[in-house]
UniProtKB/TrEMBL annotation:
Matching PANTHER family: FI19380P1, PERIOSTIN-RELATED
Assigned GO CC terms: extracellular space
Keywords assigned: Signal
InterPro entries: Adhesion/Biosynth-related, FAS1_dom_sf, FAS1_domain
Organism from which the protein derives: Candidatus Filomicrobium marinum
Protein name as annotated: FAS1 domain-containing protein
PROSITE patterns membership: FAS1
One Pfam family this sequence matches: Fasciclin
Family matches, as SMART domains: FAS1
Domain FAS1: 35-167
Domain of life: Bacteria
Signal sequence bounds: 1-27
Length: 172
C-alpha cells in the first residue's frame, strides 16, 4: 500500500495527469518514466537520435545525466534535418567539438522551467551564458523563432520541451 501510494504521488507531482482509480500498472509505468534522466528520456522518446548523437560528440551526456535540474529545449530529428546540408556532419567532427558544445548548451537553461513558467518570460539565460528570446502568442510559444511543439516532458533531473528547429547562438 505504501509503495503504491508513493508511486501514485510521484506520478501526480510530475504532472503526468494520473486519474483517480488508474490501474497500478499505469502508475508504476509513469513513475519509472520520472526515474529516467534527461538523456534516457530523450533516447526513449525515439525522436531525438540526432540530439543524443550530438550530445555524445560534444561530451555532454554525463552532464545531462547529472543532478540538474535542467530545462532542455530539445530539437527533434526533423529539426536537425532542416539544417543546411553538411552543417550537422561538420559540427559532429571532433575538431568542431567546442562549437557543437556551444550550440547544444544554448538549448539548455539551468533549473526546472515548466511551460507555465516559460510563458511568463521574455528571455532566459542558457547554460552557455547567452540568452534566448521567448515569445508567446496565444497557444504558441517560440524560443528564438523555434516553435515549442511539446512541453513539460518530465525527467528525474529536469524538464524537456520539444522544439521544431535547432536554435543557433548569436556568438559561436
Amino acid at each position: 500500500m505504501k509503495s503504491h501510494l508513493k508511486t501514485v504521488m510521484i506520478a501526480a507531482v510530475a504532472g503526468m495527469g494520473l486519474a483517480l482509480g488508474a490501474p497500478v500498472a499505469r502508475a508504476t509505468e509513469d513513475a519509472r518514466a520520472i526515474e529516467k534522466d534527461i538523456v534516457e528520456t530523450a533516447v526513449g522518446a525515439g525522436k531525438f537520435a540526432t540530439l543524443t548523437e550530438a550530445l555524445g560528440a560534444a561530451g555532454l551526456v554525463d552532464t545531462l545525466k547529472g543532478k540538474g535540474p535542467f530545462t532542455v529545449f530539445a530539437p527533434t530529428d526533423e529539426a536537425f534535418a532542416k539544417l543546411q546540408a553538411g552543417t550537422l556532419e561538420s559540427l559532429l567532427a571532433p575538431e568542431n567539438k567546442e562549437q557543437l558544445m556551444a550550440i547544444l548548451t544554448y538549448h539548455v537553461v539551468p533549473g526546472a522551467v515548466t511551460a507555465a513558467d516559460v510563458v511568463k518570460l521574455d528571455e532566459a539565460k542558457t547554460v552557455n551564458g547567452q540568452k534566448v528570446a521567448v515569445k508567446t502568442s496565444g497557444d504558441t510559444v517560440m524560443i528564438n523563432g523555434a516553435n515549442v511543439i511539446t512541453t513539460d516532458i518530465a525527467a528525474s533531473n529536469g524538464i524537456i520541451h520539444v522544439i521544431d528547429t535547432v536554435i543557433m547562438p548569436p556568438k559561436i
